[in-house]
Amino acid sequence: MASTNDKDLLPEFESIKDDKEEILWTGKPKFIPFIFTGVLGGIITIGFAIAWLLTARNFGSNGDNNSLSFFWLFGLIPLVAGLFTFLKKLFSFSNMAYSYTDKRIMMRSGFIGTDFKTIDYDKISDMEITVSVVEKMYNVGTIRFFSGRTQTDEGNTTKLYDSWSAIENP
Hints:
This protein is α+β, with helices and mostly antiparallel strands and 170 residues long. The chain has two domains: 7-29 and 96-168, Roll (PH-domain like); 40-88. Helices cover 32% and strands 32% of the residues. The protein has helices at 10-14, 31-36, 40-61, 76-92, 133-137, and strands at 23-27, 97-101, 104-109, 115-120, 126-130, 140-153, 156-168. It has a four-stranded antiparallel β-sheet. The protein has a three-stranded antiparallel β-sheet with strand order 5-6-7. It is elongated and about 65 Å long. The N and C termini lie close together (4 Å). The relative contact order is 0.18. The model has no long low-confidence stretch (mean pLDDT 83).
C-alpha cells in the first residue's frame, strides 16, 4: 500500500480516534473500480430483467392470452434489485474513506448517513488481498480483514470479512 496520506481525509477520522492514537494513513477508493467491483451481479440481474420485460411484452402484444398481460411486471423485481445495487455503490462513494492508525483500522461508509467501523489489530486474524480484472486495469485491489465474525445459515458457516475496495497499490 502506498505510504501517502491524504491530509484532506484526516478530519473524517479525528472524531473517532483516541487521544493518544496517531493516524498513519488515510485514503479513498478509486471511483470507477469501486463502482464496478461487486456490481457485476447487479448488471447481470438488470440484463435478465430487461430480457424478461422485452420477452413478456412480446407475449402480451399477441393478444392471445389475457393472463399474460401482467406477466411483464415480474421483470420489475430483478430490475429494481439490480438498480439498487448499482445506485447504492454510486451514492455511497462520497462517504467512503479508509484509515489505519497505530492501534486499529477504520472505515467510513454510508449510503444515507455516515457509518464508522473500527477493528483493533489484535482482533484481525486474517488478511487477504485480491485484485479483479477491473481492479488490475486501474492498479488497485481489495484488502479483506477477518476479525472472527461468522454467519451460520442452515448449518453452513461463512466467514464475514470487512474490506477496503479499490485501494491503490494494495
